[in-house]
Hints:
By secondary structure, the protein is an alpha+beta fold. It has a single domain, classed as Trna Endonuclease, Chain: A, domain 1, CATH 3.40.1350. About 30% of the residues lie in helices and about 30% in strands. It is built from six helices and ten strands, in the order ααββββββαββαβαβα. It has helices spanning about 15, 30-45, 115-125, 145-155, 165-170, 185-190, and strands spanning about 50, 55-65, 70-75, 85-90, 90-100, 105, 130-135, 140-145, 160, 170. A hairpin with a 2-residue loop joins strand 2 (about 55-65) and strand 3. The longest helix has 14 residues, at about 30-45. The radius of gyration is 20 Å and the shape is globular. Mean pLDDT is about 85; it is low at about 1-30.
Amino acid sequence: MNYPGGIKKNIITIKDINKDNINYKNRGMNLEEDLNITNRYYKDQGIAYIYKKPTPIKVVKANFENGKRVITEAYYSEPSTTDYNGIYKGNYIDYEAKETKNKNNFPLSNIHKHQIEHIRNIVKEKGICFLIIRFTSLNKTYLLKGIDLLDFIDKNQKSSIPFNYIEEKGYQIKEKYLKRLDYLEIIDKIWRKL
């Protein structure tokens, strides 16, 4: 359709919207944006309440500009734990989201030691804990259970997790339209108690 000024618009049909799996390869979104959209959908539909945790900072200096407070100096007051947490069907959910350009492995240096300890504590207390890892160059996203992450770390002296381990132990999250990364679909399958 041509609009005034010669602007052309692509029209998306209902048929396009109803596709379960849409290829978003070049849409320019990152993992965090996809998860925030998914979590907002879960919240709006009353399915789950999962939120991005803010990084704890201590404000040292701030100025007022145009009636708004602008932070000019701050520092991290304590190490953050994982990226997201919340509640689903009465169960505590906690997870870290990571992206890598690597095709063959996921570098463990992407996860800080205090985050691994946090994951270990959540698993010990029987919370639902996992990593969501996106291999950007492969356009694939996986959910890896916290217990499988810890098992790999405890049994190996490697600096990265091989892609085939993640492919074998993890669960690929297919990208969709409204529920961009519907990881709760996988949670329902692998944590049978829900």
